[in-house]
Request: fold
Amino acid sequence: MNAKGKVFKYGDNVDTDVIIPARYLNIADPKELSTHAMEDIDADFVKNMHPGDIVVATRNFGCGSSREHAPLVLRENGVSCVIASSFARIFYRNAINIGLPILECEAAANGIDAGDEVEVNFDTGVITDVTKGESWQAAAFPPFIQNIIKAGGLLKSLKEREAQSHEL
Reply:
């Protein structure tokens, strides 16, 4: 499983209210909700985001409330993964639950710049900045997490497992 895209870079403490402002949380449709992603920190994010692009940030990405909306709007906008020095634990779990790959790697988060083209190999954890010709090693996802992400989230993964068990 791999990702490749252009980088949108942010700093420390990007909280869930910045990722998706609370004033929009009454919108039930994920596609419509996602049109407001990152607008308070990057007004052109949705307009400039292309499927496969990558978000990179430094420390404590996804801090704040425990809402699942934050990783959901990133995924809905086509973000293929988020790389950060560290994540708020609840954001980390919510991202995995909805099938958004995230990697912690301080060296990569500090070394990658906005606009760089980056490739990620989730099987090995290798992050490569194609623009700069540099690579970093993050922890690879264990197989059960890879299965959750490949399925598109925890619930879809469980449904696939249930369907497979009925086939046996």
Notes: The chain has a mean pLDDT of 94. The radius of gyration is 16 Å.
